[in-house]
Amino acid sequence: MQRPASLPIALTCGEPSGVGPELAQKAWQALGASLPFFWIGDPSHLPEGCPVQLIDRPGEADPAQGLPVLPHSMPGQLTPGTPNPAHAQGVIDAIARGVDLVRDGAALALCTAPIHKKALQDGAGFGHPGHTEYLAALTGTPRVVMMLASDQLRVVPATIHIPLAEVPAALTRELLLDTIRITHAGLVRDFGITAPRLAVAGLNPHAGEGGKIGLEEQDMIAPLIAELRAEGMEITGPMSADTMFHAAARTRYDAAIAMYHDQALIPIKTLDFDRGVNVTLGLPIVRTSPDHGTALDIAGRGMANPTSLIEALKMAGRMGAARQV
């Protein structure tokens, strides 16, 4: 569905007892009218003294009147740092509400504040490993890809939240092929890169060193890359992961495909810890999220750094606009 880029971004509340409400206020203070967004959550969960503009529809959002809030009431008391099981279903429903608003053309994109997965499981029997899988289920998307992105690096882990011992078996040809294709398509559609350059890491040290330190590279990864290159994709690898993230190497690709979680996240969190953004590629909507958790230990103390959320909102706006071109 085509929608004007001037539409506001939907920001879900995330875990109410975490830093999400505080970050929403700080992001509004930093962005003002330069990037309209509205918050979906219980207004009573916002920091005391936060100027609020209650709205019935996203189109009413006017940042000059206060933080635009689409009220989403939740039962039970809020205690910063201590999740309340009574909030769990409300948090889940706020995500679904945000997805519906974007799909219906009322919002440009979705930005999600961090959730506390155990709190959702304990309070509402949440049956998904996390945000990404829930969004895929809500939109009927069979395969999605998690990208971590900043101005310095875009990186995609082919396998995500599984034990390291399970990675070799999980890293199938089908999974890696889908991951690369979805990443390539996302760079074109959401980032406006007409001819993306991809770099693929090996699974083993030194990319297997010719089979001496593992066979996955020569048996599966290298042939798959050759196949995609023959189709016209600009793709290199398998590369030794310890030499593909320095400054000169990063100039040679638009996104890196890593084989497992830490291989992908350590480089970007080292390079740009505060500005990393979690992006879900492959969805019918744009979705971003700050690359940090609920930070229960500092919730309610006014200490939370809003940089990652601000960057996530900005990226959501750029990606949403790119889909309109």
From TrEMBL:
Substrate binds at H131, T132, K269, N278, R287. Its cofactor is Zn(2+); Mg(2+); Co(2+). Belongs to the PdxA family. Pathway: Cofactor biosynthesis; pyridoxine 5'-phosphate biosynthesis; pyridoxine 5'-phosphate from D-erythrose 4-phosphate: step 4/5. This is 4-hydroxythreonine-4-phosphate dehydrogenase. It comes from Roseovarius nanhaiticus. The active site is located at the dimer interface. Homodimer. Keywords: Cobalt, Cytoplasm, Magnesium, Metal-binding, NAD, NADP, Oxidoreductase, Pyridoxine biosynthesis, Zinc. It is an enzyme of class 1 (oxidoreductase). One of its GO terms (biological process) is pyridoxal phosphate biosynthetic process. The gene is pdxA. A divalent metal cation binds at H161, H206, H261.
